User: Fold this.
Amino acid sequence: MSLLITSSSLNRVQTASALAFTLTFIMLFPLFPLQTPGPSLDEVEQRREQFGGGGSLEEQCSSITFEDMFIYDKAFFDIQVDEDWQTAQVAAMAWINWTLADDIRDDLDEYLEGIVPSGGDDWLSTDEVGAVILIAADCLQYSLTRIGIRDGSAHRGGVGVDWKNTTWQNDGMDITEYNGVPPSHAEGRDCQGFNQGDCYEIPVRPSVERDCDTEINESDGADECRVVLWLNATLEIQGVSNPNDFTIAFNSSNMSNAKLDFTFPYIQDLRLDQWEECEGRYVGPDEGNPGGESPPHRGSCIGDGSSQYELNQNEDGSLTYTLFPSLERGVWPYGEDLFADFTTSPIPVDDPPTWTDAAPEDGSWFPVDEDGQRKWTSWQALSTWFSDESGVSKLNIDCSAGDTGEISQGIDRSLWVTFEGTVSITCEATDEAGQSSGNRSWYVGVPITVSTDEPVLNFVLLSDPHPFTLELASEWVATAVEVEVGLVQGGQPKNIEVASLNGWAHRTAEIEVASASMLPGDVFVWVRVTSLQGHSMEKVYDFGIKKMGSPPLIAVNPVDWNGHLWRISGQYSDPDGESVTFTLLIPEDDLREVEVTVTGNSWESEWVDSSLLTPGNKNLVLTGCDESFMCTEEHPFIDAASMPGDGDGFSSDEESGGGPIPSLGILSVMMSVFAALMYTRRRD
Assistant:
């Protein structure tokens, strides 16, 4: 749902107050001369990070609400919509009592530390409170209103619909306070302020006797330390041109102990058509959290009853819609949205509920991957199957399972089925008058079995192509399915093959899936089954299939000489496309290891100084291993007689009676070309 307000999880007023004070001194620093210059705001990075870093006043205030700045015990908001429906006048009053009043003073002083000389001294002055009230008004004009109003047919948002269509009018916000700095505090004293007027300050925490006001007897039950805030502002409405039909949405996340009166101009026959409380929308900082994107289907919300409403007709015939939101901060990051649909249309006839086009056809088959207890459908989907003028949430939806299973409803009203094999399910909806939608029945079950070669030594060796046998379950012989089979090693399935099964001609099918593109290691089988009605299931099977890797192919070039220095090089190709690492040893010199580097499909040893080695020929051991630990070993031969001055030459073990590597000639050249071609093919 695109409804507007993502309320930040600010657990205490200190964050909002810190924001206000920080921004106060950003804007007001040049205006107020201080006796001792404090550090720049760039030096107070700790404060700025409380609000996600720097940025303009609008950027820092555009994602918060009044409740984020001031945590109150009780609040009242009076919203009077103007005759033109383009603006509304808002008057609010909030009470901050007892320990919340103590906290707000303490936090304001704490966050001033390091910004002004008097900050963090456990005293709060009239200058300091006055400054935050000024900046709070400027900040709140950019804040979220929580309110969305749109005319037209009742709806709950959706693609392209932005509920954030009400804003505070610029320069129209006025905030005043009472008792931020109690004037009759027992320990109040004059102070040196940064303003030109008088300065008076109090300790941020009252004594045990709560001596905020010596003229009030705390034993009477009155909190002399309380803080009271008043707000007056103009709300701009951008979504109403024809108020005969409109929806008003309110986000009540992190809001409780409040009352809101919405008074609309008189419109003949205006009435409330539907009100609903929608729970559970994710309102945390990560708006992409699953479950928070889709708007609810109108009439489908199941509220917990925490929020309430009243509707009263005034003497002039206008309506006042009163909200009592109640969603404690502990529920965050999950929120609540309240919707009210108003219309001048006549009250509709109470017709029976009907099945919608979104409902499954009668007699549909639903494939699932395995039996047992399964979530068959969510309430979000189920609520779209029926239509009723009172809303789907008011219907009694009754579902039953056949003899081979059971059906139950979760706390979120989703339907769960417990079965073995296949089960039939029948549902109907009845309204408060007992009128029925009629029955529809469906079948839910495991449609096929999939098998492949029997394992040998606890695994199945992957062949190319690899065979699979598909068989339609006996309970599904009255219908047909399409089966897709592919191989997967993480990511998307590859080489998908398709087969059709039905109960009258093709109950079984043999299918072969190409596997040349699979890498060495475990290989899984992806299967998707789709019924005639378009319902499908997917499953990844683990049959213990493994692909064995092939060792790399290695070609050796003639030895390179540079005086007494020599090196060898060559090309390689891995049939499985894996990277290859090389080791090169000189057995005649205590298995001395020579470093080998790899570039592209070529390998090359470092230069070796033959004068530092024992005299004589060298039978080298070159080993190349890929990522699957498949290795190839070659035995290049270094002929001491081929050193420059003694004639050029290079031979392998075969030439000297050793291993199987052919001497330089047409076979070596062909091997080099073959390796290069293999490398190119694998990467194409």
User: Anything to note?
Assistant: Confidence is low (pLDDT under 50) at residues 1-53, 288-292, 646-684. The two ends are 45 Å apart (CA to CA).
